[in-house]
Amino acid sequence: xxxxxxxxxxxxxxxxxxxxxxxxxxxxxxxxxxxxxxxxxxxxxxxxxxxxxxxxxxxxxxxxxxxxxxxxxxxxxxxxxxxxxxxxxxxxxxxxxxxxxxxxxxxxxxxxxxxxxxxxxxxxxxxxxxxxxxxxxxxxxxxxxxxxxxxxxxxxxxxxxxxxxxxxxxxxxxxxxxxxxxxxxxxxxxxxxxxxxxxxxxxxxxxxxxxxxxxxxxxxxxxxxxxxxxxxxxxxxxxxxxxxxxxxxxxxxxxxxxxxxxxxxxxxxxxxxxxxxxxxxxxxxxxxxxxxxxxxxxxxxxxxxxxxxxxxxxxxxxxxxxxxxxxxxxxxxxxxxxxxxxxxxxxxxxxxxxxxxxxxxxxxxxxxxxxxxxxxxxxxxxxxxxxxxxxxxxxxxxxxxxxxxxxxxxxxxxxxxxxxxxxxxxxxxxxxxxxxxxxxxx
Length: 442
Prior knowledge:
Layout: H1 2-45, H2 49-61, H3 70-84, H4 87-111, H5 129-145, H6 149-164, H7 166-180, H8 199-211, H9 215-236, E1 257-263, E2 268-278, E3 281-291, E4 299-304, E5 308-311, E6 313-316, H10 318-358, H11 360-377, E7 391-397, E8 402-411, E9 417-427, E10 434-440
């Protein structure tokens, strides 16, 4: 009888050890994806979009971006194709990402706690709320490049709607988890989203309505633009932007070129580990934290035909908006990590204590193995949209018919030109709007 019990305990040991190895090796994929994300971010920041395109294709073929990472893969491809100039292809990738985000959110709500019992890296990446918003901004820009004003307006409206629904969406996640969590160990809540309007969406919508011959709609969007600037100045404690300087965008006959520059990079995720030792056990949980990356750029100016200099206005600090939206979701992220750690600790205790009753040595070995298991399998989900820029700058100008040379210069605080882009723009008598767009990711 004693031999049978020992054999059974050794079987427990082998099973737990096997699970340890399986989870450890499967976790290697998430580290490979982290490395891939850094490669994509670096190549894109260097302006080597063709290399970014090749890397994404290679990572897709090697299954580093798995089916659960499809939303992320589509977001990266959408941005890369946008700056290569393949606007139809970019829109297709962004649309696929948007549909994936909607589907993943619906499933997350329906599954509740069951959707995160495992390591978050093993789950479908469902996109951050701010990523879902800004993909529509770049879809809108795709349509403007293609002279499809109505298509662009649809995207700005979707962007505005998603901003208005942020509180509802994030609170919906917290409520779903609270209803399905019967343990009572985690307090499920979310913070309020203090930004309900995107200045970028309302700026673009004002222009598009004005150019579509809808002055009343343009006026309403311009009013919302003022509200957006006020909201953001309140949240960040800065001076309110004087929207009277932007009145021109309501007057469609006063401009035919939209100058657009993007700077910096969106916040990056880092892992934060918390370890709690008690008399009864040991908990480890990991969660992602956002780091805002400051841009080198202090201002952007356009030099027209080597003579006229026009400054671009900072319309939206996308990185700060992203961080503010993420902050509202942080309590859910912490709750998920804590719940996952408690589940692991509870399971390891049940197995270890049961074995200890029959064989103390093997039980203690299992207890030690469970510590390694927690360390090896607990990893924060660091996935995120790597090619999303940090700030959006814009202005409008009027050019006469003909061919014009435009240089967008990116300046440091000391007004040193750190980067510039050159464009040749053809203006015809019937030109409604030409979009000159550039990006410098540092």
